[in-house]
Structures are given as structure tokens and as C-alpha cells.
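no rush on this but wanted to send it before i forget. theres a chain ive been looking at and ive put its sequence and its fold in C-alpha cell form underneath. i want to understand how the C-alpha cells follow from the sequence so walk me through it. thanks a lot i owe you, the record is right below:
>
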Amino acid sequence: MSEDTATLTSSYTEMTEMLLPNDTNALGRALGGAVLHWMDICGAIASLRFSNQSVVTASMDHVDFKGPIDLGEIAVIEAYVYDTGRTSINVKVDVRAENPQENETRETTSSFLTFVAIDEDGTPTEVPELVCETENEQALRERAKSRRKEELEALVERLE
């Protein structure tokens, strides 16, 4: 693997957070802002691992809150790079809730984030080309690209 390329797997990041009272609403469920914060951090780490450079958040697409995370549950945040531009890095981020006592897991949140790699002066800088070495990496990439395209098309339809 050259300096000019990086793999989807090299960007894969998983982090966990236990939902504690400071991050809950009056219903004992995760605050949306706390979940967005976790997603931003996880996406930034994936981008940093991929590019080996500092990154800044450029955008977060539509966020789907599919279900709650309840007090005491574990939030599992997963992110990976699925596409790049010259200086931009597109990341798929998914969140699921785990209830270890019930041996239960469910999807809760998903979005697409874009980061920009920057040099020590804060100037956007080129990122490696994404390489998918396995069929699984290629499938993840294609699913993410397809899903994002569907979401953008739906957004355009709603705006028309």
C-alpha cells in the first residue's frame, strides 16, 4: 500500500459510550445533541486514521434517528470512510444501542459526514485514494454510496 492510498478497513472505528444521566432528556433517553457529538468524534477519528492528517468537520447530512437509546444502555458508534474527494473524506456513521442485561441490540441513528483534511496551517490538503481490498469492503462502500444517493434524491424531491 502506498502513501497515496488507504483502505476502508484502515479507517474503521468503533467507540462505545454508556448513556448516563447528563446525556439524557426528561424521558431518560439520549439527547440528540449527545448522539451527534459522539458521531462527529467517531467520524473524525475514522477520517484521521484514513488520512493520517488533522481533519475538520465540513458537513453532516440528514440524520435519521430510528430509535431511542435508554439510560444505562451502551451506545456503539461505528464509522468508516466510503469515498473521498481531493481534500474531502466521506464517512458513514451508524449508532446502535446495546442492552447487555437483555442481550439486545438495535439500530438507533445513522448519517453521512464529510471531513476535510488540513495541514499545520489549516489549509485543505490532499487525502489518499480509497482502496477496497476485499469484497466486504467493496460491498460496504457501494451500500454507503447508494444509500447516500437515495437520501439526496429524496431531499431534492421534497424541496421541489
In short: The chain has one domain: 5-159. The mean pLDDT is 95.
